[in-house]
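ok trying again, last paste got cut off:
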Amino acid sequence: MPAKGKHRRPKTLRLTRSIAVAGTGGAALALPLMGAAGAHAATPQSVSEKAVHSVASVQQTAGTKAAENNSGSRTYTVKSGDYLSKIADDQNVEGGWKKLYADNRAAVGEDPSLIHPGLKLSIGGKAKAGSAESSSSEAAKPSRSTQSSQPAEASKPAEASKPAESPSSDASTAAQAAQAAPQAAPAASHVAPVSGAGVGTAYKVAGSMWSSGYHTGVDFVVSTGTPLKAVGSGTVVSAGWAGAYGNQVVIKLADGYYAQYAHLSSLSVSAGQSVTAGQQVGLSGSTGNSTGPHLHFEIRTTPNYGSDIDPLSYLRSKGVAL
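nice, full thing came through this time. structure:
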C-alpha cells in the first residue's frame, strides 16, 4: 500500500496546463501581427479604383497624341521681329506665307502685315470652319453701297406690301444723292517714308565708310520704333535680313523704281505682298552696320545695290514736300 498522505499528481494535468499557457501566449503574439497585416493590406476596392484611373489616364494621353498626329498641325507663337514670310520659311510651310495667311486669316485679320508678338498661328492646319463660315457670310452680305442705294422702307416688314419703285426713279434718286454728297479728296499717290523727320546724312556724301565711296541713300533722323511708310503703291520684293543693311524692306513701285528701307528694328510686311502709299512697312531701328537709330532710304532703278538715284529728288518729283 502506498504511504498515507502522499499522492502523485497525474502527469497529464501538468502537460495540459503547459499546452494552455503556450496556446495563450501564442494567441497573444499572433493578434498584433494580424492587426498590422490588416492595417497595411490594400482593400480590393482601392486597388480597383487605382487601376481604373491609371487606364483612363493612359487612354486620354494616347487619344491626345493620336489627335495631334492625325491633324498634322501645330501652334506657333509669334515673336518680336517675325513676319509671315520668315515664319513660313522657318517652319517649312508648304505653300509659303500665302498658305500660312489663308490658314490663319481669322486670327490675323484683313491685313497680313499686322501680326504681333504673342499671336497664335496654326502651322500645317486648315483654316478653321468658323473663319470660313464668317467669310462666306460676309460675302453673302450686300455691300454698303448696295444697301445705301436701296430705299430705307424696303427693310421694314410692315411696308413690304408697297409696290416697288421703278428703276428710273431709283437711278434718279441715286444721281441726286451722288451730287449732294461732298467729293472726297483723292488719296495721295506718294508720301514721305517717315513723318516729320529731319535729314541727317544726305545723298552722295563721300566717305570711306561706304563700299561705293559715297552714301547711296539719305538718312532720316528718327528714334527706334518709328513707323515707316510705303512711299507709293507697289509689291514687296524683299523683306528680311540683308547683312550690313540689317533688317530691310525693298518695294517695287508702280512706276518701276524700287524703294529700300534699311536698319529696321521690326518688319511689318512680307515678300510678295502688295502695299499702298502710306501703309506701314516696318519700324525704324539700328540693325546691321549702324552707328545709331535712323532710317536709311534709297530709290533704285533695280532691286540691287549700286543702282541708286537721288531719293529726295525722286519724291519731290512725285509731289512729296520734304
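cool. Residues 15-42, 127-162 have pLDDT under 50 and may be disordered. The CA atoms of residues 51 and 57 lie 10 Å apart.
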